[in-house]
Structures are given as structure tokens and as C-alpha cells.
Amino acid sequence: MAEPVIEAKGLGIKFATNRRRKRSLREMFIHGTKRDPNRGAADFWALRNVSFTVTKGECVGIVGKNGTGKSTLLKLIAGVLIPDEGTVTVRGKVAPLLELRAGFNDQLTGRENVHLVGSLHGMSPETIQERFDEIIDFAEIKPRFIDTPVRHYSSGMKVRLGFALISQLEHPIMLVDEVLAVGDKSFRNKCYDAIERMLQNQRTMVLVSHNEGDLKRFCDRGLYIRNGELVLDTDIKGALDAYNADTKAEIAERKKKDDGKAA
Amino acid sequence: MASRTLAVWQNRKIVGHLVRRDLKVKYQNSILGYAWSMLEPLAMACVYYFVFGVVFAATGGARQAPGGPDAPGGYALFLLSGLLPWMWFSAALNDAPKALITHSKLITTMKVPREIFPLAIVQTKFVEYLLTWPVLLVFVFALGGQTGWNFFWIIPAVAVQLVLSLGVTLLLSSINVLLRDVERIVRILNRVLFYGTPVIYPMFRVMEVEALPDWFKALYAHNPLAGIFQMHHAVWYASEAPPASVLWATVGGSILVLLIGYVTFRRLESAVLKEL
């Protein structure tokens, strides 16, 4: 079997609730490993004991309620958060479709921003030059606006430009965080087509979404995350079914409680 | 550490892009552009010249250039040779706390060695400093400044200053994410260090004051910045060359600051990423 592209082993990350972040400073200066007894209480594990592997060409959907650590997981894979426990190994370059406006500087024009952000993501100046028209065309930005500072753009324009640019990256791994929810209907359709095109050539994708249609359309495998733990790793339908069953149970529970209150 | 240094080196292009972007943003929205980076130190030089070169000189407290008022270049050149590198250090110090915060969007979406953001700040300010050199040279010729072999003091001066500013920037940028107080401290520090370092007055003046206790003088002379600015002055005034003890203090101190800054940066990295 081929080496997995993404490999997570016992992944865990905790966040400090309230003002505990000061502790990290204190720990650093006083004693790195000294622990006090009530330390664990205020820490909150956003993810714990998450292990899975993704092989090349797979498209994995992550489902779960809000605040259960889906985006945190993506960030750990992207390497922009450092896990407190376990390891995550990623073999290959990552195209992060996490925050599409990231890196745009409001003072610079659209053209300058495309060059800047493109090169920050590792595109060569020649590639950017070559694909520039394609990017602008895809983003539906009128040529007369491309030399306007980005601060005058509408938020839709910025997101479209961001997607158009990042979708040009040829990195083998794509991380997508609900960006499909942006833009109007016609742009969304274009995004779908672009993603489908990217998924050819054996590219790997990890997608976080609440949209069942999107998930079913692109993914063949689903990870269901509940309260920071990976409870199910199966095909996308199985994951969605489990998620929906849990949601239903929760709604029923709430109703019962409300009824109890009313009575 | 070696592998991280390598990673930073591999990402040097990104540093270049950040530097170019910062310079572009800074200069394109103003009509005078490049002139601004010169007007500020020149205006400051005029003020200090008026206060210390004219007013105090007339009342007997002259802060003249080493070698007396007749020395080549005079106090005006002495001021400029200290103020221009000071602008570099002080601008880097000012921007250091914000190095990571202003790029939080980029840092939380893109995997790059986080060290490149402080590095980009130091480099941007260094480029701005280099851009002040043509104007400095104009003044050198106009005021009749003289140099010789002592011109080569500029190499260690710039090298040590790069090391020190990088260390300070790494240290402050990471701590400030967790404790925003750093921004306030830096503003005060900027003032204190300006007068606590021989930037606008020669170091020997302090050493000659008899009222000052010896421990204070020792502390003063071994501030890493003192040695750096003595070297900057020594480029035009050979008599200002720092003695060996000051030289070692500045080299050793700067390397120590870089090490402390780097270790702090690495140890806080995980917490900083969560906070951004």
C-alpha cells in the first residue's frame, strides 16, 4: 500500500479557558515542566485521541456540530497549529482554502495582491503572469477594477479573487473549510466545477462542511467528530447518518425539556 | 535550531515579498515617498543641533563632536551618523510587538516558519536605513567629514545591530501576543534607550562625569547598544572606536539577546498560534 499522505496519530490539542494563557509565560520563565494539581481543570481539550490516515486521491469529509473541533483539525493538518499531544504528518504541499482573504493587503491593488499572495503560496512569477487573466476572469472582476486598491472591493469580490487564486495552486493536498458557502449561486457552481477539476489528477482533499449536498458530491469517506473525539471513520453516508441521528436525538431531548418546563 | 534556520532560508523569497510589500505600501500612498524617510531624521537632527550644538554650547555645556568643534564634520555629522542607524533600531523596536499580530490571518492559514515575520521587519527597516546612506554621504561631503581605515567599523556595526534587532524583534513579537502590555513598554523603552545610548552625544562625555558612580558607568558602557553606536560614530571619528571591553559586551550581549529571543519565540510558538 502507498504511504499515506496525511497521517494523524493520537492527535490532541488543548486551549486555555479564561485567562490561563498567562500561565504559559510563567511556565516558561519559572519551570517548564512543573505542574500544579488543578491545572487540568481549566484546560479544554478541543481534540483528543484523534488518529486516522488519508491516502492519496481520497476526499474526506469532516462532519460534526459547531465547536467540536472540525476547523481545529484542519488547522492542525495545515500545520498552523501545533498539537499538544500526538503527531500529524503531511507528505506534500498543502493548498489551504481556509480563509480566502488571507494575506490580501488593503492598500495594494488587486493585481499586486494576486502577485503577492500567489508568491507567498509558492507560485513562481511566471506562473502567476501566465494565469493572471484566467484568475481575474474566474473571479469575475472587471478589468478596470483590477488596479484599484483592494480596500474598495466588495467582500464578495475579495473572496472570489481569493478562491480564484488559491484554486490555481497545484499542491497535492487541499484543505477546504466551508468556503463553498461563499458567493452567489452562479459563482458557487463555478467553485464546484473548479474543485471537481482539482480533484482529478489524484489530488487529496479534506473538506469541512455543513452542507450534505457538498459532502456527498465530493467525498467518499467521512469522519464524524463529536466533542473533540473521532467517533466514526467510515463512508460519507455512514458519517452523515450518525451525525443526523445524534442531531435528531438532541432535538428530541430539547423538546422534552421544553415540554417539561411548560407543563 | 539548524533545521529551522534552513527552513527560514528556504522561505527567504517570502521574506523578500513581505519586505517589498511593506516598502511599497509605505511609499506609494504619499507624494513625497522616499523623502519622508529622510525628512524625519533630518528634522530631528536640526532640533538636536539647535538644543545641544547651539543653545547648550553657548551656555558652556557644549556637546561637541569628539576632537572639539573644529573636528572634520563637526557636531552636525556626528548627530547624523548616530541618528540614522538609531532610526533603524527604533523603527524595528516599535514594529516588533506587532510583527505577528498584523499577520495573524496569514499565520493561521499558511504553513511557513513563523520566524520570517520578525525577520521581515528587521530587513525592511534595514533597507530603509540603507536608503538613507546617499543623503548621509551628501552631508559628509558638504560638512567635510573624513574617514580612513576606520570606515570599516561600519561592517561590525551593521552586523551586530542586525543580530541585536532580530533578537529583540523575536522576543517582543511573541510575548506581545500573550501580553499586550509589551507595546506600552516598548514606547517607554524607545525613549530611555535613545538617551541612554551614545546616539546624540559622545560616550566619553558620560565617562568623564565624576558625579556618576562607577557601577553606573560600567552598566552604561556595557549596554550592547552603546558599543554599536560607538562603532557607527567611529566610522567618521576614529577616536570614538570602542575599547575591547565595550566591544565584547556589545557582541556578546547581542548574541545573547538573539539566543534568548529565539528560545522564547520557539517555546511560546504553540501558545501564540492558539491565541492568534
Give an overview in words.
Chain A is α/β, with parallel strands linked by helices and 263 residues long. Chain A has nine helices and nine strands. In chain A, α7 links the parallel β6 and β7. Chain A has a domain of 73 residues: Orthogonal Bundle (Helicase, Ruva Protein, domain 3), CATH 1.10.8. Chain B has 276 residues and is mainly alpha-helical. Chain B has one domain. Chain B is built from twelve helices and no strands. In chain B, α4 runs parallel beside α7 and α7 runs parallel beside α12. The longest helix of chain B is centred in the last third of the chain and has 32 residues. The mean pLDDT of chain B is 86. At the A-B interface, β1, α1 and α4 of A face α2, α5 and α12 of B. Chain B: Pfam families: ABC2_membrane (PF01061).
What's this, in brief?
Chain B: It is found in: Cell inner membrane; Cell membrane. The complex is a heterodimer of chains A (263) and B (276). Chain A has 263 residues and is an alpha/beta fold.
Gyration radius over CA of chain A: 21 Å
Major sheet of chain B: size, sense and barrel closure? none
N-to-C order of helices and strands of chain A: EHHEEHEEHHHEHEHEEH
* Mean pLDDT rating of chain A: 81
Terminal Cα separation of chain B, in Å? 24 Å
Shape of chain B: globular
Helical amount among residues of chain A, as a percent range? 40-55%
List the secondary-structure elements of chain B in sequence, H or E: HHHHHHHHHHHH
In terms of per-residue confidence, which ranges of chain B show pLDDT below 50 for 5 or more consecutive residues?
A: none
**Mean pLDDT across all residues of chain B, rounded?**
86
Give me the CATH architecture of the domain at 95-167 in chain A, please. Orthogonal Bundle
The number of strands of chain A is: 9
Share of β-strand residues of chain A:
15-25%
